[in-house]
Predict the structure.
Amino acid sequence: MKRGNGFLAAGLALTGLLAALVLLGFFWTPCDPSAMAAGPKFAPPSLAHWMGTDNFGRDIFSRVLQGAGATASIALATLAIGAVGGCLAGALTGYFGGPVDEVLMRLNDALTAFPSILLALVVISLLGPGKKSNVILALGLVFIPSFARVSRTAFTSLRDVNYIQSARLMGAPGGRILALHMLPNTLAVLLPALTIGFNNAVLAEASMSFLGIGVTPPDASLGYMLSEAQGMLFAAPWYAAGTGLAIVLMVFSVGLLGEGLRRRDKGVL
Amino acid sequence: MSGELVLSLSHVYSGYSGGGGLFGRRQRQEVLHDVTFDVRQGEILGLVGESGTGKSTLARTILGMVKPGQGTVTNYTKRPQMIFQDPYSSLNPFYSVEWTLEEPLRVYGKYGKAERKRRVREMLERVELPEECLGAKPSELSGGQRQRVSIAAALIRRPKFLIADEPVSALDVTIQAQILDLLRSLRRELDLSYLFISHDLNVVYQLCDRVLVMKDGRIVEQGTVEEIFSHPKEDYTKQLLAAAE
């Protein structure tokens, strides 16, 4: 089952490379990302400024590195809330079933009926806009239902499998069965779901910041930068291109990784 | 009939509740009807009948996985265990044989690590598996080996009563004979009693002391192997025997 697989190798390599770049961006960027006049205004891409400069002469590559860090950390934190909350809910309802399961799942259906951005907007307006932690919390909450659904299905399908019945017969407590006996066998489903969730979080954060309800200055995320770039699309097309490229690369490489994981584990569940 | 009681069922009706959803009324469908029998220390009780007659429901009711609608189920021994027909889904694919065998002892929580390892190795020897198997994942074992691991895992905490639900039906004939031999010798060594569920009358004849014949959730006939196989009283039993020849 663990044969070599191009998707997984390529996904790991690309994601690793990007992760290294993003980490680097936290400590070092070629220029100070917020320094005005690091170069001439509206300079096209060159050796000195790989992605050119913007209207203040700021180095776009440095800004992209920093923005990617902000976006990635928001996405990861979102994912942490959504995945942990969702998996916990899904595992408990999937394993124990009963009326709680019914009620939670119908609630879940209702939440799924709304577009996630709209829901996040509602949560943001309740929490107050403009703060990074609120963006994370809003998106994280919005991501819980989809993870709950995926993990519930995975846990339900394992509930009556013989080795789980054996675990119950030996007297293993419910928590132990969920965490030790079931969870590892749901990874084939959950890991690809995590990668898809990460990508959705990147895109959701980017859309929200683009619309001005996400990250606001002085923080800069890729989405916020994209909305900035829109204003100078003709004067500095490289701004939009560089920022967009960063988002696309991020989503693409994690998507590859997810596809690789899915292919590797196909047939396990 | 000698020996102490291991298990006793008295007028048990059991089945499943289904449908209804959140607000609807649940319908209860009884699968077992008025089932009464005992299992005594050291005996192998066979349970035969066509598929769909409720043999597995009976097993699940005895183990408490299904609540009986009426009647009483009394287990006189602690934590009866069960081995399953399908050797492919009865072991957790994520873990090594050693982990699987050690897990019941970890759950029990009374033994230190060294004692657990010792007991795992001792049980492995009893089910006649080589020590190399300890590091293997279930996917690396044959069907017969997996069934031996399942038996070892079920017996490692030394239960006195084991339910075997078609434990050899998925295996080929030579392996079947080996597993039956193993079950026989384990009964002697570990002072076990079995409820042996099978649709294969030949296997039941080889292994069991007494037989229950089940049809549509009712016990239609019970007796010693000689009585049932040589002098069946019920028509249904005669039909089963005729079909097995």
Summary: Chain B has eight helices and nine strands. Helices of chain B lie at 55-62, 97-108, 113-126, 143-155, 173-190, 201-207, 225-230, 235-244. Residues 173-190 of chain B form the longest helix (18 residues). The interface with chain A takes residues 21-22, 63, 65, 79-82, 84, 86, 89-95, 103-104, 107-108, 139, 150, 153-154, 157 of chain B (CB under 8 Å).
